[in-house]
From TrEMBL:
Origin superkingdom: Bacteria
Annotated GO biological process: phage shock; regulation of DNA-templated transcription
Protein name: Phage shock protein B
Originating species: Caenispirillum bisanense
Keyword set, alphabetical order: Coiled coil, Membrane, Transmembrane, Transmembrane helix
Length: 75
């Protein structure tokens, strides 16, 4: 009888526990990888800001090219 209990306990630790741990990890990973609505809004705002800054840099470079032709080669 003791041997049966030992074998069942060993199987529980060797088979069931790792499957449960892996399943728990997968569920947590899926929950973490999704963005909340607030995070999505923040990302959209940051993307808009980055686009506006990129346009400003392009415009500034265009102005400098017209006003100071060799500004890119100066140290």
């Amino acid at each position: 009888m003791e041997f049966v209990v030992f074998v069942l306990g060993f199987l529980a630790l060797a088979v069931v526990a790792p499957i449960a741990i892996i399943g728990h990890t997968i569920v947590r990973w899926r929950a973490i990888r999704t963005l909340s609505a607030e995070e999505e809004r923040t990302m959209a705002d940051l993307l808009g800001t980055a686009d506006r800054l990129r346009e400003r840099v392009i415009n500034l470079e265009r102005i400098l090219d017209a006003e100071v032709p060799g500004w890119r080669t100066e140290p």
